[in-house]
Amino acid sequence: MNNSVGSTGRLLWAGLRALLVLTVVCGVLYPLAVTGIAQVAFPDKANGSEVTDASGKVVGSELIGQTYDLPPKDGEETAAPDLRWFQPRPSNGLGSNSVNTRYSIILSGATNRSGDNAELIRWVQDAKAAVVKDNSTASYTVRPADVPADAVTSSGSGLDPHISPEYAKLQVHRIAEVNKLDVATVDKLVADHTDGRILGFVGEPRVNVLRINIALRQLVTAKG
Questions:
Q1: Whole-model pTM?
Q2: What is the domain partition of the chain in residue ranges?
Q3: Strand residue runs (E) in 33-170
Q4: Which DSSP letter does residue 91 get?
Q5: Per residue in 60-107, pLDDT tens?
Q6: 192-210 tens-digit pLDDT
Q7: Are strands 58-61 and 162-163 parallel, antiparallel or unpaired?
Q8: Among 13, 110, 143, 148, whose Cα sits 20 to 30 Å from the Cα of 170?
């Protein structure tokens, strides 16, 4: 009996020691080491890839998309886009057609609808018509065939901060007209903010919407 109790006590003590050691190593030392290395080697990424404007104020993260909308009017369910700015991809299921309408990081995900889903097809058609209407100007007409896929569909997460260079260029004439800028100036802005493929072959060229809108604000402010 005494031997049994003694063996049980030793096993419990050994288990407790293992628990304490693993808690310290895995729950304290390892997280501190990883955090320390991240802060030294990758401080920007470790702190959320924050983006600041010209005044140094943090205005967002380069990893999370934002909307650029007008203040909603009374009774308006979905705010209209503010056409002074480059517009992002639809947010997680084409804006108002999703539970996530304002790039809320509390919830992310795709529409979970198949390519032949009638509702999804209608959303894409409506989104394409809106892109054509919003971006056509007195001197420039957007053709439906010119609208890229990322202009009318959300990403897998619904929080994509980037758009394709094609979608950015499609918005150039509208941006120039609304902000009274030269088309060539805005076109150069897109070129300057187009990032190439990672390592030259991974992914696709892309434009970070937040960063290009910060640069656009500086252009408009400088113009007076």
A1: 0.79
A2: 2-45, 49-223
A3: 50-52, 58-61, 162-163
A4: S
A5: 888 888 888 888 787 777 778 899 999 999 874 434 434 444 555 556
A6: 999 999 888 898 999 999 9
A7: unpaired
A8: 110
